[in-house]
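Researcher: Structure for this, please.
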Amino acid sequence: MLPAMVADPTLPRSSASETVASLIARGTKELAASGIGEPRREARLLLNIAFGLTTGWQLCHADEVIANAVPYDRLLERRAHGEPVAYLSGKQGFWTLDLAVSPETLIPRADTETLIEALLSQRPERESVRTILDLGTGTGCLLLAALSEYPLATGIGVDRIQQATILAADNARLNNLEDRCSFAVSQWNAAIAGRFDVILSNPPYIPSGDIPGLMRDVADYEPVSALDGGTDGLDDYRILIPALNHLLAPDGVAIFEIGIGQDKSVPALGCQAGLRVVEICCDHGGHPRAVIFAA
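Model: Predicted structure, token format:
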């Protein structure tokens, strides 16, 4: 039996009903023609977003008729133009968390989880971390993931975009972490005083000239302010890394995400600032992804 679906009365009804199998086949064809990778899997994802139909249900009910396919068709059109699935669904998983996302923030990526893995390797005792600062918090993914692992910690997330801090606060509530964190609008650490056991940051690090060559769903839809790191991709590191001397607590660590080819230039900035490079950690693809600094 088809799960109950409440049609939006503002949407026109389709002129003809289609089966689940027909919708998937048509969606697969349209997405493939638009250059979307794994088009059949994506067509199933869009059917799930539109109607809440899981892949398992779709496989078992291929001949079930969908009377109004307009919500699916609208998602299909947006995805065919390159809009990321996370923006279509409004959510993205990160670490063990479910997070809301919006076009005001970078979509959390699995590569960024390398920073949490690096933190756990450096501070395996879960009671050892009490204060965390997340510079450029976006969705709040790094701060909230760290708080989920360190039950005695509290944290602050800052972002220069007000809508990002609102979204991060919503995500804290969604994951029952709102009592242990706060969020502030700030140009990096300008509004921050005090020292922290852990500092996390995924700053913009894509060289400006490389942005037009990124995948369409990144270059055309994700916020440029979260991507553009200036001519060589290092502009924000040059601001943030020297500030660590005034932000790190004794025995504190700072963990920064880096891009491809930055595993020498970013550590060098740390050395110039008088910091110690503790470790450079690779993501699961084998690429250097996180640099750990200590005072």
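Researcher: Any notable elements?
Model: Residues 1-15 have pLDDT under 50 and may be disordered. The domain at 91-294 is CATH 3.40.50.150 (Rossmann fold).
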